[in-house]
Amino acid sequence: xxxxxxxxxxxxxxxxxxxxxxxxxxxxxxxxxxxxxxxxxxxxxxxxxxxxxxxxxxxxxxxxxxxxxxxxxxxxxxxxxxxxxxxxxxxxxxxxxxxxxxxxxxxxxxxxxxxxxxxxxxxxxxxxxxxxxxxxxxxxxxxxxxxxxxxxxxxxxxxxxxxxxxxxxxxxxxxxxxxxxxxxxxxxxxxxxxxxxxxxxxxxxxxxxxxxxxxxxxxxxxxxxxxxxxxxxxxxxxxxxxxxxxxxxxxxxxxxxxxxxxxxxxxxxxxxxxxxxxxxxxxxxxxxxxxxxxxxxxxxxxxxxxxxxxxxxxxxxxxxxxxxxxxxxxxxxxxxxxxxxxxxxxxxxxxxxxxxxxxxxxxxxxxxxxxxxxxxxxxxxxxxxxxxxxxxxxxxxxxxxxxxxxxxxxxxxxxxxxxxxxxxxxxxxxxxxxxxxxxxxxxxxxxxxxxxxxxxxxxxxxxxxxxxxxxx
Amino acid sequence: xxxxxxxxxxxxxxxxxxxxxxxxxxxxxxxxxxxxxxxxxxxxxxxxxxxxxxxxxxxxxxxxxxxxxxxxxxxxxxxxxxxxxxxxxxxxxxxxxxxxxxxxxxxxxxxxxxxxxxxxxxxxxxxxxxxxxxxxxxxxxxxxxxxxxxxxxxxxxxxxxxxxxxxxxxxxxxxxxxxxxxxxxxxxxxxxxxxxxxxxxxxxxxxxxxxxxxxxxxxxxxxxxxxxxxxxxxxxxxxxxxxxxxxxxxxxxxxxxxxxxxxxxxxxxxxxxxxxxxxxxxxxxxxxxxxxxxxxxxxxxxxxxxxxxxxxxxxxxxxxxxxxxxxxxxxxxxxxxxxxxxxxxxxxxxxxxxxxxxxxxxxxxxxxxxxxxxxxxxxxxxxxxxxxxxxxxxxxxxxxxxxxxxxxxxxxxxxxxxxxxxxxxxxxxxxxxxxxxxxxxxxxxxxxxxxxxxxxxxxxxxxxxxxxxxxx
Lengths: 472, 472
Prior knowledge:
Spore Coat Polysaccharide Biosynthesis Protein SpsA, Chain A, Jelly Rolls
């Protein structure tokens, strides 16, 4: 039996402001028309059935990810979810997946892959996975190594040693494993020709990785054992939260004596930050990547990602500009790692620009805050056909709804009626109400909220299609 | 008699995106809390009464400028307006002012000044004007020269010659006058020590400048003579529009034999573009000017002007970033003149970002377009206390009004009623209506427009407090 474990719990800070904590990098369309996570799943089409795929993510993200995956094709509801009470980096996440699969079969092959990398050549990727499975079955931890083209200091490096005997294709024993070297060291690695970037994709037997965790991270092993014997989810939360934040690379791979590396060339990039798009996307004659509503005058080697608003750029060199409705990033490519400081500053100041977008995706559609002011808030709300919001009450605000397109079915107190484009209705404070789209096209309304308190948490849900009623 | 003529017809392209054609540079608060035009008028307080001030501007801008000047203090309604049918640069504009003043008194002294420059030292400025008046009365064209501190190639240079005899203070005859030299020439000017920047401020007798125009721009003189004898405004428009676009510097000053220069040090900058703020505004330790909602990480010598939206800047060097709700500029300081190309591109593409702001100032208040979509538009409308919109009809849209704050008096067909915060009303297509603020605090409403056509020109005004009813 073969299983794929996709790690999808990351916050994707380095792709701020498009990536936000509640809608992180793996869920956004950085490359092409699908999110990185959806691409990661599609990349397995024809390789193995959906019920062999497990997604590890945080409880917080899991509902949005489930809805995010809808429409990807048949069998999506067969994908398993392994939920972390909180993010604790890849060693605990992979450990949690391992004990889950261990219950199914300790002999199962476990393929681990990130959800937010780029892999352009699916055919080559699947072929390398097949090779990896064959050698993992012989009792190795298998890594996939990317031939480096520059002395990148943000990656882990793998030094290949002897060739694996009896392998029809190139597979090497790993001699050395080194996370994030300094520039001079990275340069000597490139010069030597025997080093590969660690792609973060791994294959091993479930029983094998369990044993390696036991050897190298015994505290984690003990915690996982306890978790696997638990019934009570509160204790699970406590144990998991107490785990050290540590990556599988630092915690296990670097220390293992049992590693193989398969040199791979499937158009990989870890998309570490905005500057990494240069490796993957086509650039114009001047070396620019320009997407969206842009007027550029003579910029060079710059990446500008705009949305609706006009971005005018003049004479930029090696810059990144990324615009969203509520936050704009302007950075030199060289200093792009400063995004971390920006996000920390936002966090410290109790702001929201690193957490949520102005347009918030919901299972039933989305809403966009057009303006917030003293005692009022204006939203555009879009409901998918046949979707409905929860039956709800607000205790501090009334709402005016003006229908822009589609047809609204409104529950207001004991009344039920329909509202058409160019008509409106009014929901007084404390009146129970529900908005529904009974039609076949999206319903768009403008909602004007008035009240002493117009924040999202003023909501009491009486009935919900999406199981969001909190039970104490 | 002494008159001041303030030139206020410019488009201020170089301060885009904050400056827009309908609300240009002279009307915005680039320095401090008053617009440059309002500062230009205040700078004359105590120097001469308001009824000696004339503003030359285009017909298009004049109504907005009149309203823009309200609240500046007593006597504002005594400021005269001289209206150009269209912009034709400073030679025709000054000529038009000269023939206007010539009818009052050919012997009058005429002080000409731009409306969009910075002058930080009002006392020194007024003293230099008094000196200028004294020597202009002796029959000279008087210019004010600024000691240059760098080889700027965008300015005009004045080479001083012999000292004017019998003058108690430093006044020189002008030996040479040169517009916009190349860099090498500018450097030799600085080295020689006898060159001054042309501040664009002039003093002369009305009869004297008329004579100089007659000598150096005879076609303009003939046109102005015709205009001064006219009654019919249509012919005026035709003649004025036919004038060549030429500055007073190129057309008259450079050729005149009768020039004086008064060396001046009153904290002047022509605020030629965003990079010029460096000369005038205080910079932080790293040489940055940071205004508004900004998180900056390690930028240097950069100017960032933000508004509500967050602008995060990382590692910028010698950059300018200016954000507005519908357009953001990101430019190297060195290449900032490329703004001209941006504005030309907008113009060619039939776009609006160079013409109007998302918030449009009106005599009665303002409106902000929060969102435009297919068949709808959402606006926040703010009415000053006691203000009212015109009695009007829209033939292609209906309007929902939700009151956010203040009290609205609504005329709807034959009804008149009041709408309070948290209440709404609906104006069907083709129904005559009027919105008024009868109260003492601003009235804010959210207007949701629905219809096949939701542009501003679908308006038929039946009655208007602001004389905006078009007569054919």
